[in-house]
Write a structure and sequence with these properties.
The chain has helices spanning 2-8, 16-19, 42-45, 63-74, 99-116, 147-152, 159-167, 177-186, 202-211, 242-256, 269-272, and strands at 77-82, 90-93, 133-137, 190-198, 222-225, 260-266, 280-282. With 291 residues, the protein is of the alpha/beta class. The structure holds magnesium ion.
Length: 291
């Protein structure tokens, strides 16, 4: 049930067929056949997914051991902040000196080098790399860290309790990302956010991004999932997969709005697949997997 709820995150109408493609807590990663080229070796280093139909329990990582490993990786740290659902629990957060923060810093160091000296783009229409340069970022676990919610929910996604976290702007920044994004603004980049969160969660999302230290962007540069009012999604609306929704929106940003997306940041391979970015950066997230 845990993994099914995780898959329902940000996609309430996920086709039933996709629900069969599950992994334990997302620690084990499937690489999409359409996965975009990544600038780092994150994909190659990912733990292989278990078989879809195991013939032995020995083929599956023990789920309690996975939970313990995830907490160790993030540096699980209790706080005294009450949860935004009913205040019955106190939130946990990650450590700024833990393995997660260290791995993030390494990815950000690579990204900063790329943004300072991007090579010629290959996705932008001819002539390449001529539009105003842009950076595009996913939100959950790319700009805002949801470890507090995963611990609160014991890794079992629930749309109602998750919405309470989102609408109360309860997520801290992914460590180092506000600095990277503000640095990019200083280098002349236009910032776009592209999330699977529904349009109704825009106010909480805007507040949380601001509280976490990100630059404010025009409302038209923050794309939330609204499949019926966005003409560039007409080919798949209203049942766009994450890859369709995100890659078609990037196509819209490049071909209709005229920007060159120099870097695309995401914690899921489905954030990065489908092109329309000169370079992709996969951020670590062993907590869940979204096809
Ligand atoms: Mg994400």
């Amino acid at each position: 049930m845990t993994h099914i709820l995780a898959l329902l995150r940000r996609s309430r109408a996920l086709p039933a067929a996709l629900l069969s493609v599950v992994t334990v807590l997302g620690l084990l990663v499937l690489v999409s056949a359409t996965s975009a080229t990544a600038s780092n070796t994150e994909a190659a280093r990912s733990v292989p997914a278990p078989p879809a139909n195991p013939t032995s329990a020995d083929q599956i990582q023990n789920i309690d051991q996975v939970r313990t490993a995830i907490k160790g990786y993030y540096g699980d740290t209790p706080t005294s902040t009450p949860d935004p659902v009913d205040g019955a629990k106190t939130l946990h957060t990650f450590s700024l000196t833990g393995s997660y923060a260290k791995e993030m810093a390494a990815v950000e160091q690579n990204a900063a080098k790329w943004l300072a000296h991007p090579r010629k783009g290959h996705d932008y229409p001819v002539p390449p790399n001529q539009g105003p340069k842009a950076v595009l970022l996913d939100i959950d676990d790319t700009t805002l860290n949801t470890f507090n919610y995963e611990i609160y929910s014991n890794f079992a996604f629930n749309p109602a309790t998750n919405a309470a976290f989102v609408n109360s702007a309860a997520f801290p920044a992914v460590p180092g990302m506000p600095t990277l994004v503000n640095q990019a603004v200083g280098q002349g980049y236009t910032i776009f956010f592209l999330t699977g969160r529904p349009e109704g969660q825009r106010p909480g999302t805007v507040t949380n991004l601001a509280n976490a230290g990100y630059p404010s962007v025009p409302s038209g540069h923050l794309f939330l999932k609204d499949q019926v009012n966005q003409p560039w999604l007409a080919s798949c609306s209203p049942t766009c997969t994450t890859i369709q929704y995100k890659s078609l929106t990037r196509k819209h940003i490049e071909k209709d709005l005229g920007f060159d997306i120099v870097a695309n940041f995401g914690d899921q391979f489905s954030d990065l697949a489908g092109g329309y970015a000169d370079q992709t950066f996969k951020l670590p997230n062993p907590m869940y997997f979204l096809p």
